[in-house]
DNA sequence: CCCGTGACTTCCG
DNA sequence: ACGGAAGCCACGG
């Protein structure tokens, strides 16, 4: 059987898929929702694993400051920003504008 | 089993 | 207010 740790990854993937279009969330928010607020890094690690799963909009997941911390992991150098803007999200200098307004909190919604 | 790494977050100076 | 350092958990070698 799978260990709980691996389930953590699966949860991250599930939550990421539940992110509405035009909305973004933070690694910490997902970690808190999963019950491990201190595992924010693990969420990012999980996103890295989700990189092979196109069903997971990793570009909608940013750090607590709304900064596209993971954009460097996407193809090219501005793909993540292009995806966000394509969904109606305004991005400036690798930073999401109106982050507080488009912020989607899984723990609050779910 | 131990060590290193990482798409984060928070605290201290 | 800004910058640097530590803490944290999980995965891979």
Give a topology summary.
Elements: H1 4-17, E1 25-26, H2 27-34, H3 40-49, E2 61-62, H4 79-86, E3 91-92, E4 95-96, H5 99-102, H6 106-109
Parallel strand pairs: 1-2
Antiparallel strand pairs: 3-4
Helix pairs in contact: 1-3, 2-3
This protein binds a DNA duplex (13 and 13 nucleotides) through residues 5-6, 8-9, 26-28, 31, 36-49, 51, 58, 61-64, 68-74.
Could you characterize what this model shows?
The chain contains six helices and four strands, in the order H-E-H-H-E-H-E-E-H-H. With 110 residues, it is mainly alpha-helical. The relative contact order is 0.19. Helix 1 (4-17) packs across helix 3 (40-49) and helix 2 crosses helix 3 (40-49). The termini are far apart. A two-stranded parallel sheet has the order 1-2. Helices cover 44% and strands 7% of the residues. It has a single domain, classed as Winged helix-like DNA-binding domain superfamily/Winged helix DNA-binding domain (Arc Repressor Mutant, subunit A), CATH 1.10.10.
């Amino acid at each position: 059987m799978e260990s709980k740790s691996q389930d953590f990854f699966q949860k991250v993937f599930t939550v990421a898929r539940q992110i509405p279009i035009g909305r973004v969330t933070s690694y910490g928010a997902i970690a808190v929702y999963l019950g491990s607020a201190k595992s924010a890094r693990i969420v990012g690690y999980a996103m890295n694993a989700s990189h092979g799963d196109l069903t997971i909009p990793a570009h909608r997941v940013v750090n607590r400051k709304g900064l596209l911390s993971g954009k460097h992991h996407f193809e090219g150098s501005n793909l993540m920003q292009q995806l966000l803007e394509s969904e109606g999200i305004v991005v400036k200098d690798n930073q999401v504008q109106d982050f507080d307004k488009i912020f989607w909190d899984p723990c609050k919604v779910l």
